[in-house]
């Protein structure tokens, strides 16, 4: 068996040559750094290093669980992520179906390209655009006042209570087109004869979508839903970093930004690592829970 395995490796050396560099990079940059998680259980000092820093057990975890700021940060993270999930997730499916139903090839490609483009723009660029558009004299307020929908400019970015919606809608605008790729790929694999048979039976377009398209992409929907739920604590760091200001900081501080401020700005590496571990553990629990739920409800799961 051992010789057969070695023989297969030799026979596939071209494929192995492509795979092993990626595995090596993953080991170096993903697995080896995990040793650094030990500092969450230490009063870590860069001068003392991993081995000589004082071991404090779960004190860092107790500290952030008792920190009132952490619960505000957790509320912001969950609020923004849940809004993105409830609005953005079904919107991607709807947009994918609409693009799939386009029959003019050139217009279909144009629509896909336009919907993808914002994904490739960094939040540094988009942040500047949104700050300009949403300012008191910006495009959005100018249109609202021109249409007599408001009498005075709306302080979108300086109104803390409205930040969740700004973060949610701007992120959806950026990512919704990109999120349709897997759904469109799954729709391309649906047998066209199913639609032909449905049309012969008198099924209209909405019924074709309900009974053919949606069941045909249900496995991708389940996959994306489970992954989205698992990343619900991973709100966009770059977005919050760019759109945050002194007026909305109470509502824009999310877990990733909280960890960034603690770890890099204040140098409290142990505390920041403990918060990161907590976020990762909760994300895994949510991932398993979403997978279990979809398996019970729809008898389908990703593992």
Automatic annotation (TrEMBL):
Keyword NADP: no
Domain ABC transmembrane type-1: 74-290
Record key words, sorted: Cell membrane, Membrane, Transmembrane, Transmembrane helix, Transport
GO cellular component assignments: plasma membrane
Pfam families: BPD_transp_1
GO biological process, one term: transmembrane transport
Top-level taxon of the source organism: Bacteria
Transmembrane regions: 20-41, 78-99, 120-147, 176-197, 209-227, 269-293
Subcellular location: Cell membrane
Entry membrane topology: Multi-pass membrane protein
UniProt record similarity statement: Belongs to the binding-protein-dependent transport system permease family.
Full protein name: Sugar ABC transporter permease
